[in-house]
Each structure stands twice: as structure tokens, then as C-alpha cells.
Amino acid sequence: MGIGIRIEHLRKVYDSPPPSAAGGRGFSFGPTRSGGRKEKKKKVEILALDDVSLEIPAGQIFGLLGPNGAGKSTTIGILTTRTEPTAGRAFVGEFDVWQQQVKAKRVIGVVPQRPNLDFALTTREVLLFHGAYFGQSARERARRADEELEKFKLTDRANQMVRELSGGLMQRLSIARAMMHDPEVLFLDEPSAGLDPQTRLMLWEIIRGYGSLGKTIVLTTHYMDEADTLCQRLAIIDHGKIIAQGTPRELKSSIPGGYLLRLRFDRATDELLRQIRELPGVTEVKSADPTAADVYADRGGPLIGPLVNAAQAAGVEVRDVHIQEPSLENLFLHHTGRSLRE
Amino acid sequence: MNWKTFYALLSRDGHVARRSLAMVLVQNLLQPLLFTFVFGRVLTSGGLMASGFKAVLLPGVIAISMVIAGVQAVAMPLITEFQFSREIEDRLLAPIENGWLAVEKIIAGMIQALVAGLVIIPAAWLTMGSGAHLSFASPFTFAAFCLLVALLAAAGGLTLGCSVGATQIGLMFSIILTPMLMFGCVYYPWSFLRAFPGLQYAVLLNPVVYASEGLRGTLAPGVPHIAGSITASVLALADVGLVALGIWKFRKKAVS
């Protein structure tokens, strides 16, 4: 039995710069000054979350996708008791995170954006003490620590001081630590930032594996491919607001003309391009080069037949067809008018 | 209250402290010991200081060693752990109310202050050479003062650790700790400040005064000192105040 998450009308205003773990690096929107006359010192207020409501069903891998400073880490911070909401409520399972902190802490595991490992300990001790904090017996925590070290390929670093580990190894250890007490809900704040491609793939496997045990997983990312391959559902967040929600497929197909078909011919005649433009579902045809055409359409595969027929009728040979599915990047662009990386 | 978690947090601090025990003892105790040697032995043997000064100095050195050890044990790790790396978050996510983590820090700090006290008593006594007459006639009073001083140090360390940023550590030593020690009646009895009446009453705001004078009262009752009932009460009050302030600051600092 898994545990779901519910967020109701969450709002967070920071009156001092937020800690960098909560999205402090690079807020992309300007601070506003509050106008209270009685205040002696004018406070800088930063609106990080603006009336966010969200429901994450138990057992899902859920992604929060958005640019830096969008409010992803603040959302995670509130759900993990590390950030006090200005208004609104957050529930992990039946526990109100702010009112029943200890009960909530018991069922969650957290991987922060930047590793916050205990530098005074060795790799293995980090896991052992974490297990002890969660009340595991000496034997149980030793067994689990060895399992986690093995799973994350850290066994040969077991007795090394944490401060001597490289960034990638620290990140792996953070994730191992979060799984050490077998939490029902796992939060990962940009888990693959700074990881090499192999480790990233290993991490995705581990996340999928953990998800398949019926655990709820919430991850934030600004990598589209990660959100796309890993998450069953996504919420796109920007400027503290959720701008779209759904499965990756739903989200992508929600943009009109989201498909791009890149065609190559032996030669492209004007007549052919005119005919393609008139095919049902085609929104735009661009041809920068006499042997190629980029066709934007609201469908991909179903358009191939009519395209080939049109080419044959015009006496043109089709050399290559490439279908680009609608991407989350396009979606973000569609909703905000700017690219996700900006 | 979750005792298992509390005990695990305490054993983590114990484990880390044991790992660096020798270094920490040298760091905290070398200066008081050198001070004891120069003022308690060199200057007294040369006749520049009366040998009665030994009994004045020794309780003060014990007090200051415990205060330094307790403050350092709590404040220094806290300052780094709350910084950029937010190392403390690991423990803030442990299934226990955040305030108990602050209490745990205080207890770990008290233990370290008491260990420092236990080490410094024979060490300073030996360094001082013959002639340092200490009275252990009232061991319970002495133990009670040690506990009050250890709690003062640890709770003070918690308050400082939650108020000072990493860039201000040097400043903390030069504008808070050094004046507190110099005007803490460590090296002289409070009554000697009679010649500076303004200062004599101003230093009463400094809790270290009651730590030194309290220990002086039990260990060297022959030396002039503030009455034990007063020092004990003020120390107890300061302890309660600093514990409350420290926990409050810690809980505020723990969440954003």
C-alpha cells in the first residue's frame, strides 16, 4: 500500500533570500518590495509559490519540471518539513506535513539538490547512523548499509571519509542514504544534476526499480528527457504556478501541430509542397533546401501514407522520413513563450 | 519523544567527538595550561606573584576551560553545518521534533565540557606545582557547579552557533568570547575589581563571572568570592535563559 501526496493552495513568500537548496540560485523574477508603512526596514519579498494545488497518487513516479527558480525546490522543501509554507497545506498520506512533522518525516526519504552529507563521517557510517536515526537495530542497519553500498557501487569507498568523495559519488551516497530506511515516499531534487551519463542511467534504473515496489516518487528536473522517460505524470511549474499537468504523452499531444516530419526527396517541386500543405492535419510546411521539407502537423505516423501518395502522384521519390514527436521543450515554449533553459 | 532517535543522534556526536578527542583537547586546553604554567608557576616561583595566587587561578582556569570546551563543541560544528552544505539537514529529517536535536546538541556539549573539566583539574594542578591548595570538602556542591557551568557553556554555544555566520567566527572570538573571558573573573576574584566600580558592576552581566566565582567558592573557599547561593542561582537562571533562547533560535534557523 503506497502513500499519496496532496497539496492545497500552497503559497510561499520568502522575506529573506531563500537557502540555495530551495531554489536560491537564480530566481528569474524580480523581488517586490512590500509597502507596509509601519515597517522600519523594508523587506525584500520573493514569491516562490503562488497558490499551488496538486495531487500525486500513491505509487506514481511524478515529475516537477521547470526552470531554475520556478518553485520546484520550495515545493519539495514544504513537503519534506524543511520549509514553512506561508499559506496552504501539504499532506503526505494522511499526515499534515507542517502539523505532524515527525510522522511525516518517518515515511519520507529526501535527496537534496546539493549533497548535504555528514562530512564528519565515513561513507558507511553515513548510512549506519541514518538507519539508527530511524530506529533500525544494529544488525538491520549493517545489512541494509552493505546492500545500499553494493547497489550504488560504493562498497570500495565504504571506509573513506565523505569529504574526500567526488561530487558524483556524494550524489550516489545521498540517494543511498534516502533509501536506507525504505521510505514510502522518495523525494529527489534534481537527482541527476552533475552525474555522468552512465551514473545517470544507473540512477534511472534504481528509481524505476524503487517505483516498481509501489513507492511514490517525486522528482524535480529541468531535463526534458529525464521527465519524459522516467515520470508517469508531470507538472510543469514556472514562476511559482503550475502551468500544465498530465502524462508526458498527454502534455505533448496538447500542443497543436506538435509533430515535426522531416522529409527528403530527390527533388521537391513547388507543386508537391502545395499538395502537402493541403493534406489534413498539416499546419505548416517549410522548405529551405530544394530536396527537403519540414512538415509541422498535429499527427505523425498517420500522415506518412498521404505524403508518400502525394509524392508518387507528383513523380517525386521520397528518400527519407523522420518523425519528431512533440517534445516537452515545445510544450514549455508553447505555454510560457520561452525556452526551458532560459 | 523518540528515545531511539535521540540516542542515535547523541551517539553520532559522541562518535565524531571521540574521533578527534586528542585534537579537541589540545585545541581547548593548551592555552589555559600554558597560562597556568606562566602565571601559576613561573611568576610565582620568581616571586613576582604571591604563591596564594595559585589558589585564585586554578578554579578560574577550570571554569574557563569548561566554558571554552562547551562553547566550541556546540557552536563550531553548528556554524559549519548550517552553512552552505546544510549538513545538519540529515539530522533535521530524522523522525524527531527539531527542538530535541537542539537539546541533544546541548547534552553532547555538556559532556564535552565536563570531560574538559576532568582533564584540566589534574593537568593544571600538576602544571602549577606545589602550593596550590584546593579543597574538595564539598564534592556535591562542586559537582553541581560543574554541571551548571557545563550547561552554561553548551547552551551558550547553541545560542552563539545559531546566531553567528561562518564568516563571523573570528569576530565572535574577538568581540564576544575574549572579553567574556578577560572580564569573567577567571584570573582574579571579583572583589579585586573594587578599584573600578563601574566595571565591577558591568561584569556582573557576564555569566562567566559566576562560573569562575562559583568554582572558586567551592574549591578555594579561603579566597574572597561571591556567595555560593548567589552564583548558583544566577548560573541556574542564565542556564534556563540560554537553553530557551538557544532552542528557539535553533528551531527558527532549522526551517526556511
Produce a short descriptive summary.
The complex is a heterodimer of chains A (342) and B (256). Chain A has helices at residues 72-79, 101-107, 123-133, 138-151, 167-179, 197-211, 224-230, 248-253, 270-277, 304-313, 328-336; strands at 5-14, 32-33, 44-56, 61-65, 87-92, 95-96, 108-111, 185-189, 216-221, 233-238, 241-246, 259-265, 282-286, 292-297, 318-324. Chain A is of the alpha/beta class and 342 residues long.
Give an overview of the whole structure:
The complex is a heterodimer of chains A (342) and B (256). Chain A is α/β, with parallel strands linked by helices. Chain A folds into 2 domains: 5-253, 3-Layer(aba) Sandwich (Rossmann fold), CATH 3.40.50.300; 259-325, 2-Layer Sandwich (Alpha-Beta Plaits). Helices cover 32% and strands 26% of the residues of chain A. Chain A is built from 11 helices and 15 strands. Chain A has helices at residues 72-79, 101-107, 123-133, 138-151, 167-179, 197-211, 224-230, 248-253, 270-277, 304-313, 328-336; strands at residues 5-14, 32-33, 44-56, 61-65, 87-92, 95-96, 108-111, 185-189, 216-221, 233-238, 241-246, 259-265, 282-286, 292-297, 318-324. Chain A is elongated, with a radius of gyration of 24 Å. Chain B is an all-alpha fold. Chain B has one domain (3-254). Chain B has 10 helices and no strands. Chain B has helices at residues 3-19, 21-45, 53-81, 89-92, 98-128, 139-161, 169-182, 197-202, 207-219, 228-254. The chains are: A alpha/beta (342), B mainly alpha (256). Chain A binds chain B through residues 14, 18-22, 77, 80-84, 101-103, 105-106, 108, 110, 112, 114-121, 125-126, 129-130, 132-135, 177, and chain B through 2, 4-5, 8-9, 11-12, 15-16, 19, 77, 84-98, 255-256.
Mean pLDDT of chain B: 90
Individual helix count of chain A: 11
Oligomer: heterodimer
For the record, give the distance between the C-alpha atoms at the N and C termini of chain B, rounded to a whole number: 23 Å
Global shape of chain A: elongated
SSE string of chain B, helices as H and strands as E: HHHHHHHHHH
Proportion of residues in extended strands of chain B: under 5%
Rg of chain A, Å, rounded: 24 Å
Q: What is the fold-level CATH name, i.e. the topology of the largest domain in chain A? A: Rossmann fold
